[in-house]
Amino acid sequence: MEYLTLDGWDPKNPEHQELMRQHLHGNGAAKTPSIEEDLAMVRAAGFEIIEHFDYMDLGNDIYGEDNWPWWADLQPHMPDPRRLLLPAHPYVRWMQPTILGALAKIGLLPENVPKTASVMNEGADGLSGLGRVGALTPQYYIGARKPLK
């Protein structure tokens, strides 16, 4: 499974640029390729592609209107108790660095933990923002095999 950009990605759109910067920095990624670029890399490595698809589309096909977008729990929204991933919710994530900072200040945590939480939150904001605008998928599947000869 790979993070890949989708047709909704517009490298000239300032909002997309900022969301991608946040995603790359906060998630420690060098680049997020397009589907076509990723398929080309797999082929260039000598693999034959058997199948490839976006697992997120599969969820939409199965659940239709009841499908909860993968990025929704990472974006600000009114919590729905049926779909609440509380530790990932922005209201909780935004408080984490302050709480962790207090714990670090009294010596219960290493001093760099609050900064790490802030960087990871930045990655979550960028990643989920890219999902919200239809620019990225977190679960693109490529099934491939290396030919024997």
TrEMBL record:
One biological process term in Gene Ontology: steroid biosynthetic process
GO molecular function: methyltransferase activity
Taxonomic superkingdom: Eukaryota
Domain Sterol methyltransferase C-terminal: 91-147
InterPro entries reported in the protein's UniProt record: Erg6_SMT_methyltransf, Sterol_MeTrfase_C
Protein name: Sterol methyltransferase C-terminal domain-containing protein
Organism (species): Spumella elongata
